[in-house]
Amino acid sequence: MTGDLGTTQILLDLLALDGDNEARTDEDIFVGQTPTQNRNRVFGGQVLAQSIMAATRTVDEARVVHSLHGYFLRPGDPNQNITFGVQRLRDGRSFSARRVHAYQNGEPILSMIASFQEPSEGLEHHDPMPIEAPDPESLPTTADLVGHLNHPVAKEWAFERPFDVRHVTEPIYLAGDKNQVADSAVWLRTTSAMPDDLALHRAALAYASDYVLLEPILRAHGLAWVHPGLSIASLDHAMWWHQDFRVDQWLLYVLHSPSASSARGLGTGQFFNRDGQLVATVAQEGMIRLPEFGKK
Predict the structure, then answer these.
(1) Which positions are catalytic?
(2) What percent of the chain has pLDDT over 70?
(3) Among candidate residues 224, 220, 217, the one with its CA nearest the CA of residue 176
(4) Which DSSP symbol is given to 131?
(5) Which of 196, 288, 287 is closest to 235 using CA atoms?
(6) Which of 88, 124, 201, 265 is the most buried (most CB within 10 A)?
C-alpha cells in the first residue's frame, strides 16, 4: 500500500502514549499529545483513541477491546497535553473492564468505560452490507473536493488527516443534500500502512468513527457543514468491535440518524470490510445548534 506516510505517522505518534509509573494512585497514568491543528478544540476521536490505548496498556496483551461507552464532558485544549488515568475495575477469566478519565487542568474532558476480551468461539451472524457501493478507487478524495479552498480547516481536511475519506453519498462540505435523507456512506482507510498491532487498528477505527457520524443529521435537514453559525459537539460515544480488520484497508462506513430533537441528534454507523463482513458498530449523540433557533 502506498500513501502519505506523514499523516499516518501523526496518528501513530498520538497513539504512542507516555507512561508515568511514579504518578500512579488508584490509576495508571499516561500522557498523550495533540498534533498541531487549526481547530480550537481537540478532535473527539483523538481522545477516544488515546483512551483506548491507555486502557490497553493495563490489560493482558491477549485481550482486545470489544466495546466502549464514553461521555465527552468538556472541550479539550489542543495546546495542552492530555493526562489519562486508567482504573482497573475488574479482571475476570476472559474479560477485563477499565475506566478511563482524560484530564486537562485537573478536570475530566472524557469519561469512558471499556471492556476487553480474550478471543472466544461462539454463535456467529451479522447484518449484510446494506448498500452496493462503488469501488473507493473510483470516488474523489477529500482533497479533490475541498483542497482548492483557501481555508485552513479545508486544507486540514484535504491534506492533513491520517485517513483517506471518500464519500459514496454526495458530500455536504459546501452544499446540503437536496434529497434530505438521514443516511450517508463513506469509504475510509489510513493514508499509508499501519503496524501489525490489533490494538492500534481498533483504536484508529475509534478515531475515524468520529469524522462523519453526525453527518446524516445535517443531511436530513438539507444542511451543509459550512452552514452559517452551525455549532456541533459530540456528547457521548459508544462502539462495539465484532471482528478483526485492518484500518489500512478500505472499510465502508454506513451511517444513519434515527432522531433529532431538543438541539440533539443521534447518529449510528456500521463498518464493513470489502468482503461485506460487519466489523464494528458505533453510535453517538451530538449537540447541534443553529442560530435560527436561538440558544435555550
Answers:
(1) 210, 234, 284
(2) 95
(3) 224
(4) S
(5) 287
(6) 265
User: At 294, is the pLDDT very low, low, confident or very high (cuts 50, 70, 90)?
Assistant: low
**Three-state secondary structure call for residue 21:** helix
Cell 491507555 -> residue: 54
Give domain 5-118+139-289's CATH superfamily. Answer: Acyl-CoA thioesterase, double hotdog domain (2.40.160.210)
**Taking the mean position of all CA atoms in its chain, how far away is CA 88?**
24
Please answer whether residues 198 and 117 qualify as being in contact, where contact means their C-beta atoms are separated by less than 8 angstroms.
no
Grid coordinates representing 136 are: 473507493
Q: Characterise 263 by phi-psi region: left (phi > 0), alpha (psi -120 to 50), beta (else).
A: left
Reading the block at residue 183, the C-alpha cell is: 443516511
The 10s digit of each residue's pLDDT in 12-47 is 888 888 866 555 567 999 999 988 777 789 999 999
Which residues share a beta bridge with 260? 265
Helix (H) or strand (E) holding 204, with range, is helix 198-209
Domain ranges in the chain? Answer: 5-118+139-289
Q: Which residue has the cell 502506498?
A: 2
Strand, coil or helix: 115 = strand
* CA-wise closest residue to 201 among 247, 138, 152: 247
